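Worked example

This section walks through a single chain of length 173. The input is the sequence exactly as stored; nothing has been trimmed or padded.
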Amino acid sequence: MSALNYKIAVLVFLENAAGEHLLLLRAKAPNLGVWSPIGGKLETAIGESPFECAVRETREETGFAITAGDLHLFAVIAEKAYEGESHWLMFLFRCRRPIPGLPPAIGEGRFGFFSRAAVAELPIPETDRNALWPVYDRYRDRFVALKADCAPGKPILVEIEEIIPPPPDGLNT
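Given that input, the structure is written out below as C-alpha cells.
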C-alpha cells in the first residue's frame, strides 16, 4: 500500500430533548448520500484543539452555540486506510446539552432527528455501523481509544486500545 495522508477530525453526537440523534445526510464526499453525525477536520494550521474544532463545527453546521464544557470526549479512533484514501484520527464527542431544534439544510446536506433504533435502519457509513455507533452505545459516558483497519476489500477490524475507567478483571466491556 502506498503512503496515505493522515486527517484529523471530530464527530459530535448531538441529541434533542427527546433523546433523538441529530444526523446529517451528507451531500459531499466523504460519506456522500449517507447519514452521519456532524463534524469536520481540525484547522491544524492554527493549532486548533479537538474541543475547539467540535465547538466550531457545531456552530458552523447547526447554528447551535456550545462551549467545550458542554462536550464529553468519549472516544478516539484511528482509522487506517479509510476508503483506501487516507488515514483518519477521529475524536468523538457527545454534547451533554440538547440541541433545541432541527437546523436548516446547509451545503453539506440536510438534517434529521432519529431514535437510536431508527439510526440502525438508515444508510450510514460501514465504519459508523460497525465501529462508531457500537462505541457510542457502550462508552458514551466513559472513554475508549480504538484503532480500526478500514482497508478496502477486508472486513473492518476494530481493536480497543484503552478504556477509562478500566473494566473489572480486564474485560473489554
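What to look for: The helical segments are 50-62, 116-119, 126-139.
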